[in-house]
Target: Peptidase A1 domain-containing protein
Amino acid sequence: MHQDKLSYVEIFRQDQARVDYIHRRASNATTRLNPFGNSLLARVPTIIDYDISAYSYIIDIGLGTPTKFFLFTFDTGSDLTWTQCEPCINCHTQKNPIYDPTKSFTFTNIPCDTSYCSQLEKFGCSSNFSCLYEEEYYDNSITNGSLIEDVLYFNNDIIYDFVFGCGHNNTGVFGLEDGLLGLGRGPISIINQTPKVYNKIFSYCLPSRPNIAGYLELGKSVPGVKYTPMLTKPEMPSFYFLNLTAISVGGEMLNLPPTIFSGPGTMLDSGTAFSYLPPTAYSSLRSVFKKK
Model:
């Protein structure tokens, strides 16, 4: 499905829809639904291309044996990694051939009595006891299918027995990407599937313009890099938060009460285009910015 370049109004509307979706996820954090009834360091070029998916960050991922390569959106606000799969009931147009697990001799189905399956937000069990999943996004796009494992490749790094979604029925606006890489903090994310390999560390440098490469790194970076501790909210355990202490514009520190950022922390989300501030902080920022 082709997406034209979005206007700022359209971007804001999509962004607000994502923010609302995040709030809904927080309110439903303790709910687990069954929609089916009983039935090392990796350095990967990250490309932004408005002709592929407006304001999404794209990486090249290898799957299966023999290896086939796919374009994935990466998202720090999602846990589940998934790709479109054959046999495809309903798949959107993508640039690469659709992943066919039956042509990979390292592919395996995940049983529905495993922790990977039960920890999904929406899960079920097929007639052959394989795990089924469903993931719904802020714009009402949905992917559902089977939970499987196969080999995943980041450049020269190999992750064996990587668990991800094999999407047989995918509806909504997904652009031309082949799937999504979940970098959240949930148990099924790539971060928590590889703690012994990458020590739950990743970093990225986002490209500033279309068709310019950025980088996604899994694992500890070069010595001397300073890190900011991340916070966790119990009701939103999959998301990343940090303490925002102050804001300055052109060297001028905003005159804000110290309690303005004393709440649960500031969320970092690769899928949100705009920054959002409390009304008091935003008003002060806007006032100082207009003077510059």
About this structure: The chain has five helices and 17 strands.
